[in-house]
Specification:
Layout: E1 2-7, E2 10-13, E3 18-26, E4 32-39, E5 46-51, E6 58-60, E7 68-73, E8 78-83, E9 89-100, E10 117-118, E11 122-127
Length: 128
C-alpha cells in the first residue's frame, strides 16, 4: 500500500501556470500507476491525467489536453502535474491517485474506479 500527499495548489491567475506534486510513501512507488483527478462542488471526480508506472506513457483527459503534463520521478516517489493556460473556473480540488500494476503491463486508468489509493487533495482556484 501507499500513502499519497498532494501539494502545490493555491490561487493562480487565468492563463497562468502551476505545478502540483504528489509524494508517495509506503511500498515501492515505481510499481504503481498514478493519476490526477479534479473535483468541483456538486460533481464527481473527473480524470485529468494518468501515467504508467515507468513514466513512459501518459494519458490525458479532454479538458487538459495540450495544457498539462504529467510526469514522475520514481527515485523521489513523486508524480507531478504541470498545468498552464489555466482557465477561470470554480474552485477545484485536485487529487492524486495510484493503483498497483501487478503484472508490469503499463496500465493507465481514466476511471476513478481504476484507482485504489487516494490523497487528501490540494485546492486550485483560478481567478480572472
Amino acid at each position: 500500500q501507499v500513502q499519497l500527499v498532494e501539494s502545490g495548489g493555491g490561487l493562480v491567475q487565468a492563463g497562468g501556470s502551476l505545478r502540483l506534486s504528489c509524494v508517495a510513501s509506503g511500498r515501492t512507488f515505481s510499481r504503481y500507476a498514478a493519476g490526477w483527478f479534479c473535483q468541483t462542488p456538486g460533481k464527481e471526480r473527473e480524470f485529468a491525467a494518468g501515467i504508467q508506472r515507468s513514466g513512459g506513457r501518459a494519458l490525458y483527459g479532454d479538458s487538459v489536453k495540450g495544457r498539462s503534463t504529467i510526469s514522475r520521478d520514481n527515485a523521489k516517489n513523486t508524480v507531478y502535474l504541470d498545468m498552464k493556460s489555466l482557465k477561470p473556473e470554480n474552485p477545484a480540488v485536485y487529487y492524486c491517485a495510484a493503483v498497483r500494476d501487478y503484472n508490469g503491463g503499463g496500465i493507465i486508468w481514466s476511471r476513478e474506479s481504476g484507482y485504489e489509493y487516494w490523497g487528501q487533495g490540494t485546492q486550485v482556484t483560478v481567478s480572472s
